[in-house]
Amino acid sequence: MDILNNSNSIWQRQHTIAQIENPQKTYPAQKIFEINQILANLSKKETEDKYKLAVNEGDKLLSEQKYDDAKISYREALKIMPEQVYPQQKINEINSKLTNTAATENEKTTRKNQYDKTIVLADKYFNDQNYPLARTEYSNALAMYPEESYPSSQISKIDQLVTELKQKENQRVEQEKRVATLITRADESFKNKMFIDAKQIYLLVLEINPTHPHAISQIQRIEDMLALQAAEKQKIAETNSKYNSIIAEADSKFNANSLAEARKLYYASLELKPNEEYPKAQIRRIDEKVKLTAITQPNVKPTQTTITQSTATQSSTDVSTSKLDEFAFKTESERVKHLTELKNTYQPGVTLEIYKEKNRTVNRYIVIRGTEVHEVREVIYSYGMTQCYIDGKPTTSMYLQSIVKPKQGENFSKSEK
Length: 417
Known about the structure:
A six-stranded mixed beta sheet has the order 5-4-3-2-1-6, sandwiched between helices. The chain is α+β, with helices and mostly antiparallel strands. Strand 2 and strand 3 (372-381) form a beta hairpin. The protein folds into four domains: 2-84, no CATH class; 174-233, no CATH class; 235-320, no CATH class; 332-416, no CATH class. It contains 13 helices and six strands.
């Protein structure tokens, strides 16, 4: 361009000289005009090329989202050709995009913060096992970022957990129904004293619920009662064995006409079985024999084979006399009345009364604890047997001791009658 300007200046000077030297000639002026036109066209094309170069550069930078650099190129284009509207349009477009981008970034930041808070809240509900609220919050988070996998994964996990919880709840309800049915059956068997059947059913309950308190308590009661029954059976067997042995010996003495010894043995058998008729009948037979002997043989002295009426009477008195009333009640009202009288007569705590008789010692305990009243007897026979009773009913020595043992701070008194 500088070369053209210089050439233009040279041509203009030469044509100017030519006009001065020959002012009548127009040719040089015409040529000067043409040269000026050519030079002007060349200058315009160069400007347009520069403009296009700047615009192209701006478009390229804009497509690469290099907005600040693009704006510089568009401003350069405006300097070259200020009348052109395109560069300014692109600058306005870039400014608008930058504004929108800033707003979008703010929106993204706000949405991300809200998403994070929602996830934190959802996780808290999840850890607290508040699954309905947790699911709601995870769904809200998923609505903000549908492409995020974490909320979706947590929702699936919650759905699975809720399904499992419903199944467990259904199982629990069914188990409770099953347990209730079994308990009803077991209690009915227990009520009917079918202890073995009841225990088996209670054990079925414990298979479902190992800590069921009623089943555990009832099984313990049954085991205690079965142990008591076994002990009672053992004691009855022992009593029967001793009774039969004494009766056999008494019969032997009776048959040998050793009436005094036979009489003592029959009375000893009655201490084991007071309601047995056979020893009583044998004692009556012995009494009749004694009377008959006294009538038919008045001069016969009592020997080992005979027994006098006075001896029989004395023996009968020794055995039958007792300082204690019979420990048996015909009705429940009699038992209640007796225990009520004891409560009104004795002080709270444990009172022991010892009765010593010919062939036995009776330890009588009066136990009063609050509203609970018991009369407990421990009968110790001279030949080694012991019988225990509570409120008129047989019991074991172990259970007797558990009842009569004084508790800490409890009153205890002892006397011998």
